[in-house]
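S2.1 Query sequence (OB domain-containing protein)
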Amino acid sequence: MKYIETEEGPVARAGIVGTVLETRVNSEKNSGSITLDDTSGIIRVQTFGEGIAKIEEVKQGDLVIVFGSVREYENNINLLLQILRKISKEELQERKAYIDFLKEHWRKMSEQIASDFTVFEGSLDDFTKIIAKKYRLSSNEAESMVKEIKAKKLQQNETAKKVQDNADEQILLQAIPKCDQERRGATTDDLAAFTGFSKEKVEEIIKYAIDEGDIYEPSPGRFKIL
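Output structure tokens follow.
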């Protein structure tokens, strides 16, 4: 593959800063690789031909920066070497600080875009085009941002619904004994009148509570707590 699919979209080229764990060059000196640890994982960087000389300039323990084309082979991701050079610990710290700055900038921008999204009334395509222009994003970056915001909103809505459903179920469970004065079981009409829920909602909660083993139906249309 000439690229790999990620949550942010297709990636064809990547840069990595890491520590050299191992270097290898075959006996013909026409193929070689280095293995890097960037603290988040280990990746292999391959090269052929002229790239061999670059590999021979580094050794185990060196800090290096690598740029290369992303490849996937037998479920393993590696890079095809394009640029390789040593860096100092000072430069590494500078790069980390810059990356932290970019992350914070992206976080603040994401929050603002999410806020814009909540009040936008047009189509998703229109919103994507607007934020791409407003925040100077590429089409892929804007599409990825909107996709992430939609996923978060959906998750938030699902979480809120679960919380509300659990609260409604507890209200209904507490209402059953109070509506069961004759000890024959509470009816859906009694429960709807007592809780203020619609009959459809009461029936929905009852079905869920029966499936969960919280209540049972001693006779048709009447319900008791287990």
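The chain is about 50% helix and 30% strand. The mean pLDDT is 87.
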